[in-house]
UniProtKB/TrEMBL annotation:
Pfam families: Siva. This is Apoptosis regulatory protein Siva isoform 2. It comes from the Eukaryota. InterPro entries: Siva.
């Protein structure tokens, strides 16, 4: 029995290997962050905040996942005082004032 032919014939796009380098990454989805890290004139690599991707201005890190945080994204847990990022923290809006809770304290509040 002979092999059957390709059903797409000439309509199929070519499947070529594409080299993705630093230059191509700097034009992509996270292009601004990559271009700052790669092409910064001082040569020093800046660390980006895990929540908003701005440059980190201090040494604040999330107490749960240990990712870097900028001053605007730091949430201090209402229960234990630990720092939490937007991914690990939970905002409780059930009271008059909203309060941030880390994942450990959020389990006990529920």
């Amino acid at each position: 029995m002979p092999k059957r032919g390709c059903p797409f014939a000439d309509a199929a796009p070519l499947q070529l290997k594409v080299r993705v380098g630093q230059k191509e990454l700097s034009r992509g989805v996270c292009g601004e962050r990559y271009s700052r890290e790669i092409f910064e004139p001082s040569g020093a690599v800046s660390i980006a905040c895990c929540s908003c991707v701005r440059a980190v201005d201090g040494k604040a890190v999330c107490g749960q996942c240990e990712r870097a945080l900028c001053g605007r994204c730091v949430r201090t847990c209402w229960g234990c005082g630990a720092m939490a990022c937007a991914l690990c923290g939970l905002m409780d809006c059930s009271d008059v004032y909203e309060k941030a809770l880390c994942t450990s304290c959020a389990m006990f509040e529920a």
